[in-house]
Design a protein that fits this description.
This protein has 339 residues and is α/β, with parallel strands linked by helices. Helices cover 30% and strands 25% of the residues. The structure holds NADP nicotinamide-adenine-dinucleotide phosphate. NADP nicotinamide-adenine-dinucleotide phosphate binds next to helix 1, helix 3, helix 4 and helix 11.
């Protein structure tokens, strides 16, 4: 069996393919032979060594999510059987031909859900669902501002907002993704050429949006806050602006982190606006996670959502896959193939 290892902090070349022993599941775990593993932007940040305490010490195998087939059951596992097709939230270790996962983090997938779709969903759709539905209580007609609208979480957020009958969706992305974003039924905003606060205000008669999803972080949060209407909700859930490129620029990351705004509760009261901090990796309530996963599986079966997969790289090409995302090429989700 082989797996990908972040051998040290640095550019994508630090990702190495290494041999690993066959796994034996612990009590309450299953072993999954991985078919596909999702790549998340957080993996790039972990590889760069700028993900803080939410990442394990390097060296380690990244990979938040997988799809595959159960090959072994740990003691006491009654919920699954060998040979079952599943998707799982792994936390780490997903970039591997084999992974052990506690049963609470595993869901069965129907025969008509592809392994690719199943691996593309757990993190992106859970994050978008948690923000818009669980925290945001999104309602019919609500307006939503989505940054990195063409990316993994971005496309998931678009579909979930639509499934809940949202009104105008504003999607910010690189200019080359205009057509792709517009085809999703979203009002495209060019991140380099337009001021998203101006566009949003202008097209909501000066009011602003009900929900703003901000994975950019730093100073950018101020503008997302500004684009909210009274009663609006801002979700701060990332720090893509701390990444300057495929190499380590720790000072840039630190500088941008230091420029993060300090929101005053008094100001928020006066403006009737809310800010949620969201990190799916630190949510401890596994029952909540399970409910959210089950709601998403239902939406998938009802064809209300359908993951958009940009590309699937063989795991030996993981270096190329990370560069692909650094170069802002992806439209939808990027996966690794471990079959
Ligand atoms: N808090 C959580 O639990 C959680 C969970 C999932 C994801 N996230 C965050 O959500 C964001 C999106 O995650 P994702 O996995 O779905 O990734 P993604 O959006 O598919 O990521 C790639 C896209 O991000 C944009 N981007 C912005 N800054 C970039 C930079 N410095 N370098 C390269 N690309 C950059 C690019 O699109 P454009 O050029 O078109 O903007 C790029 O195509 C990330 O910030 C991630 O950390 C947070």
């Amino acid at each position: 069996m082989r797996k990908v290892l972040i051998s040290k902090a640095g550019s994508p070349e630090v990702l190495k393919i290494v041999e690993q022993e066959r796994l034996v599941p612990n009590k309450g775990e299953v072993t999954i032979r991985v078919q596909n593993a999702g790549i998340n932007f957080a993996d790039l940040m972990m590889r760069l060594g700028i993900y803080g305490k939410q990442a394990p010490p390097i060296p380690f195998t990244p990979g938040y999510e997988v799809s595959g087939v159960i090959t072994a059951l740990g003691e006491g596992v009654k919920e699954f059987e060998k040979g079952q097709r599943v998707a799982a939230v792994t936390g780490i270790n997903g970039y591997s031909q084999e992974v052990n996962v506690p049963v609470k983090q595993v869901v069965s997938i129907g025969d008509d859900v592809s392994f690719e779709a199943a691996a593309a969903m757990p993190v992106t759709y859970l994050t978008a669902y948690h923000m818009l539905v669980e925290l945001g209580n999104i309602k019919k007609g609500d307006t939503v501002l989505i940054h990195h609208a063409a990316g993994g979480v971005g496309t998931a957020a678009v579909q979930i907002a639509k499934a809940y009958g949202a009104g105008t969706l504003f999607g910010v992305a690189s200019g080359s993704k205009k057509e792709f974003v517009e085809n999703l039924g979203v009002r495209f905003i060019d991140r380099d050429k337009e001021d998203f606060v101006d566009v949003v205000k202008k097209e909501t008669n000066g009011a602003g949006v009900h929900h703003a999803l901000d994975p950019v972080g730093g100073e950018h949060l101020k503008k997302s806050f500004k684009s909210l209407r009274s009663g609006g909700k801002l979700y701060a859930f990332g720090g893509s602006s701390f990444v300057r490129g495929p190499k380590i620029f720790k000072l840039t990351a630190l500088w941008r982190l230091l420029r993060s705004p300090k929101f005053s509760p008094l100001n928020m009261i006066g403006k009737n606006k809310a800010i949620f901090g969201v990190h799916m990796g630190t949510i401890k309530d596994m029952d909540l996670m399970r409910r959210e996963i089950e709601a998403l599986v239902l939406m998938l079966n009802e064809k209300k959502i359908e993951p958009i997969i940009d590309s699937v790289f063989h795991f030996e090409d993981v270096v190329k896959a990370h560069y692909y995302i650094h170069n802002r090429k992806n439209r939808g989700k990027v996966l690794l193939d471990f079959s």
